[in-house]
Amino acid sequence: MDPFVNPFRELFKQPSVPLGTWLMSGAESTAEAMGCAGFDWLVVDMEHVPIDYKDAYHILQAIAGTRAIPVIRLAWNDLVIVKRALDIGAQTLMFPFVQNAEDAKRAVAATRYPTATDLTGTRGFAAMHRASRYATAPDYGKRANDGIFKMIQLETPAAIANLEEIAAVDGVDALFMGPGDLSANMGVIGNVADARVQAAIKDAAARAKEIGKPIGIVGPTPEMVSQFIDWGYSYVAVASDMGMMMRQANAMITALKPALAKAVSSSVY
Fold first, then answer.
1. Which of 137, 30, 50 is nearest to 91 (CA)?
2. How does pLDDT run across 174-216, given as a tens digit for each residue?
3. Annotation marks residue 58 as catalytic
4. pTM score, two decimals?
5. Which of 5, 48, 67, 262 is catalytic?
6. How many CA atoms lie within 13 A of 82 on its CB side?
């Protein structure tokens, strides 16, 4: 993997909409399996999953052996958190709960080293880490900035209202709708199918398309994600590793309940 070419950015060159899923288990083996399954991109969720940077480091290593592109969802828009994620080799970052252009500017600055022509970057420099291929990538400090892809999450009505000004911030590569938090902040927590939430999601896609900014989203089912694609979302994710596992586990348990009940009723002790 070239540290100066962002692989997520390359996904937009393919003819189909890039498809991903969330990694909620925090397990390297599951991350590797999801990468082998055929997803284009995988979100390593450091906001809601109890994994630390060493865990994330190993998960990135596991995904590296597959065709999938890893995305680190940060715990918060904080320069120390960003620095540590970048140093372990993350090239594509998802920033949660960005509300306005100032939040977006702070996010972008945290991903950039200061340069001779632009001193606004706030990323701290170290020569020896996974991102620089352990100091074997030539001129990493001078060339790294362009290899980072920044996704900005919109998770409230206020953030959606500021969509255009957030998207206009130099260095914001893409937007990402957070439908779960959006539903909560619209008073219908967990109900992504609510008509008002769906209307806001559709509106955001149309506005992002109008200004030419890629916008992504995650949905719980293939049916809902298909609707998002029809509305113009540029990249999409469906469910999560844990969600898929639990859904299949529940389906199997339900399918076996009649046989289990029959066996109990006919048993002789």
1. 137
2. 999 999 999 999 999 999 999 999 999 999 999 999 999 999 9
3. no
4. 0.96
5. 48
6. 26
